[in-house]
């Protein structure tokens, strides 16, 4: 490339510019570029460190607290059915009335059955008279043993008829099987009750119970007789609503639902506080006994198709995968039953592209009790 220069104000003459490059100038340019490239390129490439944040696994002495909701119901509720048909002649109790065990709560018309019973009694008496007469004749050899057998059979049938009718007459008078409260009255005197008609419901409300579903992991830490906090929101308002009532675990059902892995716990509220009623909403606070648990932050747990695992950082600052067996979730932490020892360092941040046996750089350590 050449320029025409004239005096101090030399300017390129674009019309006379020639795009030609001489060989010495080209060689000099290539040498200069090669030198610049060698200076800009490092002699070795340093890999970027893999940064991780860790936390130590710790044993913590604590209890597990869980809140569940349920519905209060009477410990015993009995539906009263008729066993005979007939017209209701007495039904003295209404909803809310208290009844005692053995007290008459309903009566049906018994005239037809009583007439049948009188007929059966008359046949029984006749059979007894005939039997005494036939026995005397048999002793004097004036009749056969077959006739004696027939009379004995007639008497047995008459006695059975009497017993059956007396039993059916007893069904026409209904008595309360428990001390309780009438919760439902389904008919009125004068109505015709069919056989097996539901006419009344009684409930023993001296003790109220509720049932809640719990994880199989928590059930193993509860026992029958454990004290439980209860809150019945309908009984109190304002700050008093936070005052707990107390019940106890009265039954732990033996079966576990195979789909949800939960079981049923029955909780009894006794004595029943004033105003508590079956059907009310109740909040249940269950708390296990204090014990030492090995806890890690939930975010440290990794999951695969085979089993959960964590990344452990060894003394050489290398990441190692470790399979673990988990227990209860407690807040933002999870209990480890097997696979870890207290004091081991776990990765809680920096999982991207992290591999087994990879060298890492620790940039921070978090407290196990921190919320993340």
Automatic annotation (TrEMBL):
Listed SUPFAM superfamilies = HlyD-like secretion proteins
Molecular-function GO terms, alphabetical:
efflux transmembrane transporter activity
Q: Which superkingdom, per the lineage?
A: Bacteria
- One short Pfam name that applies is BSH_CzcB
| Domain called Multidrug resistance protein MdtA-like C-terminal permuted SH3: residue spans | 294-350
In this chain the CzcB-like barrel-sandwich hybrid domain maps to 79-204
Query: What's in the GO CC field?
Result: efflux pump complex
Q: Which NCBIfam families match?
A: RND_mfp (TIGR01730)
- Tell me its family: Belongs to the membrane fusion protein (MFP) (TC 8.A.1) family.
Name of this chain's protein: RND family efflux transporter MFP subunit
């Amino acid at each position: 490339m050449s320029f025409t220069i004239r005096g101090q104000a030399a300017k390129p003459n674009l019309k006379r510019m020639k795009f030609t490059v001489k060989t010495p100038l080209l060689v000099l340019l290539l040498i200069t570029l090669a030198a610049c490239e060698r200076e800009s390129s490092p002699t070795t490439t340093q890999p970027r460190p893999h940064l991780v944040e860790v936390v130590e696994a710790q044993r913590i002495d604590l209890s597990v607290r869980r809140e569940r909701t349920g519905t209060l119901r009477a410990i015993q509720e009995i539906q009263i059915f008729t066993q005979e048909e007939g017209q209701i002649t007495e039904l003295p109790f209404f909803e809310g009335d208290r009844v005692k065990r053995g007290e008459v709560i309903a009566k049906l018309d018994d005239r037809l059955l009583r007439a049948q019973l009188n007929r059966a009694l008359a046949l029984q008496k006749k059979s007894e008279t005939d039997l005494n007469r036939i026995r005397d004749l048999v002793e004097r050899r004036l009749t056969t043993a077959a006739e004696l057998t027939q009379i004995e059979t007639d008497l047995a049938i008459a006695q059975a008829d009497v017993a059956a009718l007396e039993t059916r007459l007893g069904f026409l008078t209904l008595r309360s099987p428990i001390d309780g409260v009438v919760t439902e009255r389904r008919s009125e005197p004068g109505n015709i009750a069919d056989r097996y008609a539901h006419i009344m419901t009684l409930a023993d409300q001296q003790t109220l119970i509720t049932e809640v579903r719990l994880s199989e992991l928590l059930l193993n830490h509860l026992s029958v007789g454990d004290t439980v906090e209860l809150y019945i929101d309908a009984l109190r308002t304002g700050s008093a609503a936070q005052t707990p009532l107390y019940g106890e675990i009265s039954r732990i059902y033996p079966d576990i639902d195979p789909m949800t892995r939960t079981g049923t716990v029955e909780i009894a509220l006794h004595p029943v506080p004033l105003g508590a009623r079956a059907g009310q909403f109740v909040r249940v606070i269950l708390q296990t006994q204090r014990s030492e648990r090995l806890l890690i932050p939930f975010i440290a747990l990794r999951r695969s198709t085979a089993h959960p695992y964590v990344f452990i950082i060894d003394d050489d600052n290398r990441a190692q995968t470790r399979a673990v067996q988990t227990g209860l979730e407690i807040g933002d932490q999870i209990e480890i039953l097997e696979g870890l020892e207290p004091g081991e360092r776990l990765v809680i941040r920096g999982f991207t592209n992290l591999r087994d046996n990879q060298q890492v750089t620790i940039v921070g350590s978090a407290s196990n009790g921190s919320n993340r």
